[in-house]
């Protein structure tokens, strides 16, 4: 990419940009191999009901154990997967893996009340014409009751192609699959459009949760978001709960559910199994 600098109108070769491009390309090459070399794993983060502190479900979060670089964050590789289209395969695998896992925990009677599994869907996955078929197939293969599956999508993913999305969401709804809006507040932040989409749950982005101050007049937009979402019949999950103070505020605001390091970090399946065993 040409960059204007000093007297020369164009600088044709920027060594820093060049380095970045090469690293990015290398990561893309490695990511293509990651799936069949079994370098991807899914971690699970508990989601709790705030009034009872009871576990209600998990969010599935993909992890990449790169052979040289170690753990690569999904914040880094999901955007690459999106751009290259690799997200369709990765997303399919994550969905299948996490449905299998929940079904296994249910079968082992690891918990009395049924728990949900929330899985992130990217914008690009949403534009696949056979997305609903893929989900049907995964549910059939894993024997998971669709009621326990919850799909998380962002506002921008919905708005990118609102019409196509609406029909997909309606198909999912027919199957009793639940839907969450992820990272609410970081995108269009328009509660009015939510009326036209069949959404069960709104997840308040962690930036809002973490900005809540020590006293009641510094709660920012959190009270408003909770109030309107609940009036529209949605339940609310607060993301990124890290402190007792944040938890206290959220409880006082009647927020339904919470997720965050204060309760539990995302953990590999075995650790969750152990946790479930110790509590039953
Ligand atoms: P997200 O869906 O909003 O997931 C929540 C993120 O917040 C996770 O980051 C989680 O580890 C982190 N988190 C949870 N509790 C706390 C807390 O108390 N404090 C802080 N600071 N962070 C907390 P993670 O796992 O790094 O994932 C980042 C993003 O990558 C996700 O954000 C999601 O957008 C995307 N992602 C992760 N797995 C998948 C996947 O399987 N498919 C797709 N399409 N995207 C994924
Ligand atoms: Mg999410
Ligand atoms: Mg989120
Ligand atoms: Mg987020």
UniProtKB/TrEMBL annotation:
Pinpoint the EAL domain residues. Answer: 24-280
Key words of the record? Phosphoprotein
* Lineage: superkingdom: Bacteria
Q: Which residues form a coiled coil?
A: none
The protein here is known as EAL domain-containing protein
Species of origin reads Stenomitos frigidus AS-A4
């Amino acid at each position: 990419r040409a960059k204007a600098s000093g007297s020369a109108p164009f600088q044709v070769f920027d060594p820093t940009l060049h380095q970045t491009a090469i690293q990015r390309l290398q990561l893309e090459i490695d990511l293509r191999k990651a799936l069949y070399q079994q370098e991807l794993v899914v971690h699970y983060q508990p989601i709790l009901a705030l009034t009872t502190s009871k576990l209600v479900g998990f969010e599935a979060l993909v992890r990449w154990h790169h052979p040289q670089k170690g753990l690569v964050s999904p914040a880094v590789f999901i955007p690459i997967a999106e751009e290259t289209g690799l997200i369709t395969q990765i997303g399919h695998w994550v969905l299948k893996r996490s449905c299998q896992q929940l079904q296994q925990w249910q079968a082992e009677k690891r918990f009395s009340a049924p728990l949900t599994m929330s899985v992130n869907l990217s914008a690009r996955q949403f534009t696949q014409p056979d997305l609903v078929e893929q989900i049907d197939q995964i549910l059939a293969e894993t024997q998971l009751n669709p009621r326990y599956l919850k799909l998380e999508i962002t506002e921008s993913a919905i708005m990118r192609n609102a019409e196509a999305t609406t029909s997909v969401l309606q198909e999912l709804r027919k199957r009793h699959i639940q839907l969450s809006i992820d990272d609410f507040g970081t995108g269009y932040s328009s509660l009015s459009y939510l009326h036209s989409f069949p959404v069960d749950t709104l997840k308040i982005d962690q930036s809002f949760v973490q900005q809540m101050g020590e006293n009641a007049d510094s709660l920012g937009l959190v009270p408003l978001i909770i109030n309107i979402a609940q009036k529209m019949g949605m339940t609310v999950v607060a993301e990124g709960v890290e402190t007792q103070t944040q938890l206290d505020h959220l409880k006082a605001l009647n927020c339904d559910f919470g997720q965050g390091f204060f309760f539990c970090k995302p953990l590999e399946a075995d650790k969750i199994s152990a946790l479930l065993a110790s509590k039953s």
